Amino acid sequence: MSAADDFIPLSLCVLTVSDSRTPDTDSSGDYLVEALQAAGHRLAHRALLPDDRYRLRAAVSQWIADDGVDGVLVTGGTGFTGRDSTPEALLPLLDKDMPGFGELFRAISFEEIGTSSLQSRAFAGLANGTFVFCLPGSTSACRTAWERIVRDQLDARTRPCNLATLRPRLKE
Fold first, then answer.
1. Is the pTM of this model over 0.85?
2. Maximum distance among all Cα pairs of the chain, rounded to whole angstroms
3. Do 87 and 134 meet the contact criterion of CB atoms below 8 Å apart?
4. Around Cβ 128, how many Cβ atoms within 10 Å?
5. Nearest to 121 by CA among 149, 81, 150
6. What are the mean pLDDT values of the chain's consecutive 10-residue runs (172 residues total)?
7. How far is residue 120's CA from residue 125's CA, in Å, rounded to a whole number?
8. Read out DSSP for 22-62?
9. In angstroms, what CA-CA distances link 159 with 40, 42, 46?
10. Which of 41, 53, 51 is nearest to 13 (CA)?
């Protein structure tokens, strides 16, 4: 599908995955909320959960089951430590993987942090017609993902094409 002439606001959720952050110290979640709202989208839900694959899966499952939610932005839990479990929690929910997102994110990150970018297990996909983007936990990584990839793909005016205009056809 091609780009639209007008902006289409989407309803997005933000989930922070962290064992150490609190609502007062969740700078990555705060950044994503501010960025999506500044872009003209609506915040549908926000949560902060510990690195527990079953709690993560339960929360995101609720959101992707809600027809009013267009996308989910997850920050945290994509590294290699023993507690990082976002991919293990959420990959089983995806109907379609979006390998280009992780590849592009790591390529852009390489420009910023060099070979440390290989430690990122950032990924995205589609679950029940809902876009799911899983980003590293650092605010800098969230900014990179939003400003260099996600913002434009969730803007129906981005040419030659974007994810936002695919929404009507996602459940065909």
1. yes
2. 46
3. yes
4. 17
5. 81
6. 86 97 97 98 98 97 98 96 95 98 98 94 98 98 98 97 94 88
7. 16
8. -TTT-HHHHHHHHHHHHTT-EEEEEEEE-S-HHHHHHHHHH
9. 18, 22, 30
10. 41
